[in-house]
C-alpha cells in the first residue's frame, strides 16, 4: 500500500471517479482538481469511506489559464491528468476544443516541472489520437501504440465535422505532451493511456439517467426498451472503466510505463451484442434484438497494457454490459 500523494484532475467524471477509487483503495493520498466547490462536494460524497486520504481540493475553473496548476501541484509525488474537454456541439473549433485540450495538458506538465518531488505524470489520452478516420472501419487492420491520427491543427480548425475535431484534439494534446518531454529537462517521466469506448458501472454522482456520461448513455438508449433501431457502432472497441482505472494507477509505478504509450482495449463489440446481453439479464424488458455476429472491422491491440499494467485478463464485454445494465435498471426503478 502506498502513502504517496497524487494530484488528480477530472476526479468527478466517469473515468476519474474510478481512478480516484482505485488510488484510494491502494493507499494513495489524493488531492483532487475540480472546477467548482459543488464538484468537490460530489467527489467527497462518492468516496466517503476514504475521506481521511483526501489532501484537500483545488478549485480551478479554467485549467487552460497559465499557472492554473502551480499551487495544486506543490509537494505531490505523482500527477494523474484525467480531465479533458468534451464540448458538443462545438461553436469554435480552436477555442472550444483544440486549445483547451493542448493547453490543459501542457499547463499541468509545466506545473510539474516546478516540483522536484514529481516522479511521473500519467495522462488520459484516447484511441481517437490513433485512429485514421479517413480509413473507416478498416477490416483486417490492427491499431497499436505505434499508430497516430494524421489530422492536423489546420485541418481540424476549419473542419465542420465535430467528431473529426474531437479526435484531432486528442492527438494534438498527446503529441504536445511527448514534445514537451523531448524539449525540456524534467525530473519526471510520463505515460499516456489511449482508451477506446469506455463502458461500465458509474461511481460519480448523477441526479438522474439524463446525466449519464456519453458512453453509458449509448448503452442505456439501446437497452431501455425504447429504441426502434440500432445506431451504427461508431467505435467498435471497448474497455471496462474498472480496467481503465487499474491501468492508470498501475502506470504510476511500474518501471515499464516510463515514457510509454499504452492502449487499453478489451476487444471488439457491436451494440446488438449489448442488447442481447441485457435481454438475457433482464428478460422482463422487451429490448430490440439484432445481428450479433462480429463486425468486419479493425481491431485494437490492448496486449501491452494487459501484460504490463493489468497483469490479468480484461473484463469481458458480457460482464461489462451485465454490470452496467443491472445498475442502470436499478437507477431507473428508483
TrEMBL record:
Which parts of the sequence belong to the 3-beta hydroxysteroid dehydrogenase/isomerase domain? Answer: 8-226
Keywords per UniProt: Oxidoreductase
Task: Name the GO terms of the biological process aspect.
Answer: steroid biosynthetic process
Please name the InterPro entries in this protein's record: 3Beta_OHSteriod_DH/Estase, NAD(P)-bd_dom_sf, NAD(P)_dehydrat-like
**UniProt keyword annotation of Oxidoreductase present:** yes
Question: Any keyword Oxidoreductase?
Answer: yes
GO MF term set: oxidoreductase activity, acting on the CH-OH group of donors, NAD or NADP as acceptor
Q: Which family does it belong to?
A: Belongs to the NAD(P)-dependent epimerase/dehydratase family. Dihydroflavonol-4-reductase subfamily.
**Family annotation (PANTHER family):** NAD DEPENDENT EPIMERASE/DEHYDRATASE, STEROL-4-ALPHA-CARBOXYLATE 3-DEHYDROGENASE, DECARBOXYLATING
- Which protein, by its recorded name, is this? 3-beta hydroxysteroid dehydrogenase/isomerase domain-containing protein
Protein source organism: Mortierella isabellina
Which classification does the entry list for the species?
Answer: Eukaryota, Fungi, Fungi incertae sedis, Mucoromycota, Mucoromycotina
